[in-house]
Amino acid sequence: YKAQRKGMPPELASQLPVLKELLTALGLALVEAPGWEADDILGTLAAVVGDDDCCVLATGDRDALQLVTDRTQVWLSATKAGRPETKKCTPAAVREIYGLAPAQLIDLKALMGDSSDNIPGVAGVGEKTAQALLAQFGTLDGVYANLENPEIKAGIRQKLAADKDMAYLSRTLGTIKTNAPVPLSLAHYIPKAPDAAKVTRMLAELEMFKMIERLHLPAVAPAPDRPAARKSTDTHDLDALLAQLRAAGAACFVPRFAEDLLEQLTFAMPEADVIVPSGNPAFLGFCKQLLEDPSIKKYTTDTKQLWRWCMRNHVHTKNLLFDAALAGYLLCPGASGYDAPRLLQEYACGDFAHLCAQLEKQLRQNGQFALFADVELPLAKVLAQMELSGFAVDAAQIARFGAALDDRLQGLTKEITTLAGQSFNLNSPKQLGEVLFGKLGLRPPKKTKTGYSTNAETLEALRDDHPIIAPILEYRTLIKLKSTYCDSLIKQIEPDGRIHSRLNQTETRTGRISSSEPNLQNIPIRTPLGRQLRDCFVAAPGCLLVDADYSQIELRVMAAMAREETMLRAFRDGVDIHTLTASQVFDLPPQLVLPEMRNRAKAVNFGIIYGIGAFSLAKDIGVSFREAETYINAYFAHYPQIRAFRAERIAQAKANGYAETLFGRRRALTELTSSQRSLREFGERAAVNMPVQGTAADIIKIAMVRVAQRLEREGLQARLILQVHDELLVESPTAEAPAVKAILREEMEQAATLAVPLLVEVGAGLNWNTAH
Question: What is the mean pLDDT of the chain?
């Protein structure tokens, strides 16, 4: 019985104790009976419900339908078309589905069996035959009492006779018992009052913050005996509060913003929180005195937005020492958010001052405080200045570029519809699939649930099969470029003629900065069209754009971390690493390496960082699996320390539970212990590439802080305006450009000391394309 069932996955089993503790804290009764099935407990409880009461069994198991009566309903949960669905099953509903009464479902399973539970039933008797027999003879006993009835076909009669014992055994196995040893008094199951503080704490630890809202629990578990927050709206109160903060020498406060407007400050004071709203006429003056006072240590959150507000309002903040959100991000870079209420819940802190102390303690224990204090915290100010500065855009040039794209799209549409022999919606994958695989008869590489796939990979595979494919691929490239960039960017130009993208400091798990509203990091650079779009991003009048880009920083970091001497020597000697790799992989002198060979070696060099396998490499460079495998093997033969580095990093991550950069940034890798092979393999790739990518991200952040501080220290007007992965962009008055070039090269190349030199390429121009 149930021999085919797989055991419970360990990931699920490990959650059950937590679930039981949580349900108990919610005041719900747990019912357990070792050796008995959950169905038997449901059946037992359903049987003790009085005739005047109603029992509801909520389950996804159809076996429970045999328990349906006039007073017992089964609410059957299922998923239909990707959406949850609940069907309320009464005796009438069961009869409508099966043509049988609920009690007959036991005998139905006895006859037809159930492979999922390893219930054999009668060999050769399926659901329709079993339903027909029970509809005619009522029960399993009735079927066997009428075995000689001529209305039963001879073949069915023989099967029934041969497996009679198995049928009755199957009925026993399929019958839900109603005598499980569980408490039968319904009073035992009345929910108790939940322990709200414990539930809040547990859900916060599990990062189930939406569930906290759904259960209407308090956002923050208050500290014992801590009075509710009080509002300070009187000028005298603000003077007293400022005096109190100066006497303490520290201020722990949470700012609340609406857009760029500072709405209020909430201070964690010893006796109770104090809320200072912006409606107070003295609010701005109070903020200025507080933030500019060097004798007060500031512990806060969301310092980037605070810095932006300060810069707008000409407030010169001093002694800002802590950002709870940045600390939370370093300690748990995979969390879905780092706002103060969430962190207070997660760390079970009743007030913000206590939270900051807890976070600082954890950072120091992890050896991450220097990364926090010297990199992330000062970087918040740099990002604030970059967001305020923005990037000048030539709107007229974008409009002309968009119009040119429109003309080309119209031409492509005409060409495609002519080749197809009909008009259709080129943006509809369904209609495109019907044209390609229906009308034109192309071979479909694969089919999805909704029809034939027409994604880029599929179309690339069909490129040589029909002349319609190339213009379709070009159409898709252009329509995305126009909608994502041309149409969108024009709408996002602000009255100052600049685009002010948001630079996000706490979003990626590797530590990289991301860009949004709009994402300027995704503007293509390797295609002619992408470069035309970069032409539209310009320097302000009288200025130049100075662009500095690290050369192959991730490869240099990997060579240094792996201590791979062949690579280190090449970088020290200024040898082209891709040509060197190609000469080794193809066993040729460097001077005989062809451009195609170098490109393949380049794909291998960068692919190794991301844990690429032979299958993916073969697809990327258009060779056979065996050929790609040969390239990878040859690579490791010439760079043996890279293979050792990969194995070492995976072993360390498994032992520690996380991967780590040279500067102490961590990423938890729970995937390494997963029972699913695909997740384990992902964890192993991340264990290798996160230290490399993350270290490169740390270096560029260090460089950003140093460049910004140097520009300010030397009294220059030039300002950082954008960071794109390994590239920094400065808008500089033309006269300052030579000095800015030197500063960028010096600070970026000296941002870290590795076993290999960091090399920076610097250019300048009137627009982003010519500067790069």
Answer: 90
Q: Report whether 67 contacts 102 (CB < 8 A).
A: yes
Dist CA 281 CA 209 (whole Å): 36
Angle 341-342-346 from CA coordinates, rounded to 5°: 120
Residue 336's SS3 state is coil
Contact (CB, 8 A) for 163 and 123: yes
Residues 6 or more apart from 432 whose CB is under 8 A from it?
424, 426, 454, 472
Contacts of 714 (CB under 8 A, 6+ apart): 739, 743
* pLDDT tens by residue, 130-178: 999 999 999 999 999 998 888 888 899 989 999 899 999 999 998 999 9
> Quick check: 676 pLDDT over 70?
yes
Sign of CA dihedral 647, 652, 657, 658: negative
The C-alpha atoms of residue 363 and residue 368 are separated, in whole angstroms, by: 5
**Mean pLDDT computed over 370-379:** 98
More confident residue, 563 or 1: 563
Q: Report residue 279: phi and psi, to 5°.
A: -65, -15
* Spatial contact of 62 and 112, defined as CB atoms under 8 Å apart: no
> How many residues make up the chain in this entry?
772
Strands 760-765 and 543-550: antiparallel
**What one-letter code names the amino acid at 479?**
I
State the DSSP code for 6: P
Q: What does the pLDDT read at residue 672? A: 92
pLDDT at 226 over 90: no
Asked if 333 contacts 505 with a C-beta cutoff of 8 angstroms, the reply is no
- Tens digits of per-residue pLDDT, 70-115? 899 999 998 887 788 899 999 999 998 888 999 999 999 899 988 8
Q: What is the distance between the alpha carbons of residues 133 and 137, in angstroms, rounded to a whole number?
A: 6
- Pull the structure tokens for residue 505: 């400091």
Q: Find, among 505, 287, 547, the residue nearest to 377 by Cα.
A: 505
CA distance 633 to 629: 6
Confidence at 374, pLDDT banded by 50, 70, 90? very high
Tokens matching residue 323: 């950002």
The dihedral over CA atoms of 682, 685, 690, 693, expressed in degrees to the nearest 10, equals: -120
Structure tokens at 224: 């014992």
**CA proximity to 515, closest of 387, 393, 377:** 387
Q: For residues 471 and 601, what is the distance between their CA atoms, to the nearest angstrom?
A: 30
Residue type, 515: S
Closest CA to 160 of 99, 107, 116: 107
Q: What confidence tens digit (pLDDT) does each residue in 11-45 have?
A: 788 889 999 999 999 999 999 998 898 999 999 99
Instruction: Give Cβ neighbours of residue 717 (< 8 Å, ≥ 6 apart).
Output: 732, 733, 736
**Can you name the residues that pair with 546 across neighbouring β-strands?**
730, 764
The yes-or-no verdict on residue 51 having pLDDT over 80 is: no
Q: Give the residue carrying structure tokens 């414990």.
A: 198
In sequence order, which residues have a C-beta less than 8 Å from that of residue 421 and are 6 or more positions away? 439
Q: Are strands 666-668 and 719-724 parallel, antiparallel or unpaired?
A: unpaired
Please check whether residue 478 is in contact with residue 529, taking contact to mean a CB–CB distance below 8 angstroms: yes
3-state secondary structure of 8: coil
Phi, psi (deg, nearest 5) at residue 582:
-65, -40
